Amino acid sequence: MCGIVGYIGMQAASDILLAGLQKLEYRGYDSAGIATVSGDRVRCVRAKGKLENLRQKLHGQDDPATIGIGHTRWATHGKPEERNAHPHLDRDAHVAVVQNGIVENYRELREELTAKGYEFLSDTDTETIPHLISDCLKSLKLESLQDKHAEHNEPSLFFAAVRQAVSRLEGAFAIAAICADFPNEMIVVRQQAPLVIGFGQGELFCASDTPAIVPHTRAVLNLENGEIGRLTPLGVEIYTFSGHRLAKMPRLLDWNPVAVEKHGFRHFMLKEIHEQPGVIRDCLAAYFDSHWTPETRVSPVTLGLEDALLEGVESVQVLACGTSWHASLVGKYLLEQLAELPTQVQYASEFRYSPAPMRSNTLTIGVTQSGETADTLAALDMERERRAEATVADRARLLGITNRPESSLGQLVPNIIDTHAGIEIGVAATKTFVAQVMAFYALAIDLGVRRGKLDVDRAMALIDGLRQVPNAIETILSSQEDRIEELAHDFSETSDFIFLGRGINFPIALEGALKLKEISYIHAEGYPAGEMKHGPIALLDARVPVVAIAMPGSVYDKVLSNAQEAKARDARLIGVVPDNDPNASELFDDVLAVPAIDEVLSPIVASIPLQLLSYYIAARRGLDVDQPRNLAKSVTVE
Ligand code: M6R
């Protein structure tokens, strides 16, 4: 949530900042702004709304500055107005600050600073920071004047002022600050919000996320919580909040910037839907040993997890939010049915304040594609702390499933399953969802075999079945996409949708409804099909389409009966059904056919037509599919 960028080097900063913000716009798009330093002044330009508005405001203005910071905002404190846009300045417009996060004690600080004569021009928590830095700077300058021999063991007064100011802040934040009086340095801070530094040739970058940096360099260094970086033409110095200098080395990123282009697709979401067969192939290659025999190792799964993590596990609890929570519900089904492990899936935001009682021999899994979701990180951190007094084995039983192993999640938990989906730009998760589900297949099969609950033949049959999934998705894309696009025309004015599924496909009904809500703004609900008669059926009439996921298996006939009940109430009935079902067209008004597949392997396949349906309805309504209103790709605030 919110993206910050910074540049110091020899090129014009504003162009680089704008290009960086473009790559971070997925993090928020309520307003954008940049501040640069040249001569002895800060130049700050901000605009409400998308980055394009800022770009137009800057058009034709020549700014020679070679140091600057930028921000794209997802509003928390204060409406999406220009006066609340970052960067924020101090009273003398000498200090400029961008922040991603929340300063929780901003009210007290604001009162204190107002009493000292600082005037606030915005409603934000962030504006306290430049005033606080300015106040600290003033005191430090005064001290230096009064005692010319005073020894400051600080690299610069500006650094010292930022360090002092930051020690007063409570909350989770990443900050970049520049000052007209110190035109050759930028100070960056991280406290529970991501910040990465990029090392170029004679230039340095900082950003909330690597896509803003990779067009310039792949040598990066992630700041860790409680660290401050000082970026100057001489290089980068990293310190702790208490002022100790740290020795840290950059690492090389191994991914390709081309991955963040649309490649002819109208939207990133559509491109990412089409990337799913490749993502699943990558997961298959990473998670399963194609040459495995029972003589070689216990399990055909190659997740690279320590044996100590999985041995002796008697139950599982999963913490996640949004789509990751839905993937975890599929995971619950798999862990319970394949590995006979009782599994609880909790919303991380709820778990934080009402955690389930701690139980020994429980594997806790945090699932977050971004690895930066504040609620998920806080819930996991809480769990980690709760276990501080537990046995060594229980302390180690923490696992993360993420698409960004280098994220904050990667620093928080000792074990990670990488979902290998490649960077996802569309705010609506698609390919990262199916990759998370793949990670749960691998984990459940691994645990099932290790625990002797899943026989090897069944495990191998499941893995063979998973190997068919990429082709099945390709078949859906080639045979159904045009039909779904056409069908979507009928729903451009619809205001309510119901999605039904049962068993392993109940989470897919939830996910189908979430996709539709977030990108098309149509009200949608997902229900376990058997629950409909206990209330939601009252909503049904000819204006409320019902999508039923009816894949052959243990609940197939049950779902068909539930669909009949909806049809009897005049609902237009859309069925996600196997392509070999001869009776589907009798019951359903519209059929979204998918290749027939074992029920336990059907969730990924069943998701694809629902993703396409949401996408085409939203596109038909002319909405901004990749950047839906009010949302941001990674939710780094509570
Ligand atoms: O990065 P995370 O997986 O932790 O994100 C969790 C949710 O914010 C995310 O899944 C959200 O619901 C998506 N917009 C869904 O498409």
Provide a compact summary of the structure.
The protein has 638 residues and is an alpha/beta fold. It is built from 19 helices and 25 strands. The strands form four sheets. It has an eight-stranded antiparallel beta sheet, covered by helices on one side. A seven-stranded antiparallel beta sheet has the order 5-6-7-8-12-13-14.
Unreliable runs, pLDDT <50, ≥5 residues?
none
Q: In DSSP terms, counting alpha (H) and pi (I) runs of 4 or more, how many helices?
A: 19
Radius of gyration: 26 Å
The profile of the biggest β sheet is: 8 strands, antiparallel
Distance between the termini: 10 Å
Give the strand order of the largest sheet, numbering strands 1, 2, ... along the chain: 3-2-4-1-10-9-11-15
The secondary structure category is: alpha/beta
Pick out its properties.
single chain; 638 residues; alpha/beta; seven-stranded antiparallel β-sheet; 19 helices; binds 5-amino-5-deoxy-1-O-phosphono-D-mannitol
Describe the structure.
With 638 residues, this protein is of the alpha/beta class. Helices cover 36% and strands 22% of the residues. The chain has 19 helices and 25 strands. An 8-stranded antiparallel β-sheet has the order 3-2-4-1-10-9-11-15, with helices on one face. The longest helix is centred in the last third of the chain and has 34 residues. It is globular. The mean pLDDT is 93. The structure holds 5-amino-5-deoxy-1-O-phosphono-D-mannitol.
